[in-house]
Write a structure and sequence with these properties.
Layout (H helix, E strand, L loop, with lengths): L3 H7 L5 H55 L6 E7 L2 E10 L5 E8 L2 E9 L5 E10 L2 E9 L2 E11 L4 E10 L3
Antiparallel strand pairs: 1-2, 2-3, 3-4, 4-5, 6-7, 7-8
Length: 175
């Protein structure tokens, strides 16, 4: 009868050196692949954030322009304030309907807000609500030139790389 020691001698396994070599080769192959995927994923996140900010900005501009088209043309007012060389703009307009609504667009910090008010039966404006229309806004400018109102908005999309978006849209006032 064979002893147990001889029986174990015939079964071969992997040595510690062979296992370490396999782990090293797997690491050498895996690290570049993981670096590639992580790099692509971070690029995807950055670009996705840029697209989100751009979409919010375009939607906000569309809301303003739609309200300007609906507004009573004589109600569109541009309020310009200059303090210490810094100019701020407000755009105010009234949409007439069953309930008259007045919208005011203005910059508060880096947020472009839309204030909405309803006209009460007494003629006074009440029921105020301010909604954030856009964020990361660096500049909100409203210029009137004869019958043409031009709105320009600069938005910071990527503060690290200095990527900005500038939207501009014009509306001709009908008389």
């Amino acid at each position: 009868m064979k002893s147990k020691e001889n029986h174990l001698f015939y079964f071969s396994g992997y040595t510690l050196i062979e296992l370490l070599v396999v782990l090293a080769v797997a690491g050498i192959i895996t690290i570049p692949i993981m670096t590639f995927f992580i790099s692509n994923y971070s690029t995807y996140l950055k670009e996705s954030n840029k697209l989100d900010v751009q979409q919010v900005a375009r939607t906000g501009m569309d809301v303003m322009m739609t309200n300007m088209r609906k507004a009573k043309q004589s109600s569109i007012r541009i309020i310009k304030n200059t303090i210490n060389g810094h100019t701020t703009y407000q755009l105010e307009l009234v949409i007439e309907g069953n309930i008259n609504k007045r919208y005011t667009y203005y910059l508060s910090g880096t947020n472009l807000l839309q204030k909405e008010e309803e006209q009460q039966p007494s003629g006074y404006w009440g029921k105020k609500a301010a909604n954030q229309l856009m964020y990361n806004v660096k500049q909100f400018k409203v210029i009137e030139n004869n019958d043409l109102i031009t709105i320009t908005i600069k938005i910071e999309i990527d503060g690290v790389n200095g990527y900005e978006l500038e939207l501009s849209n014009s509306h001709k006032i009908r008389h």
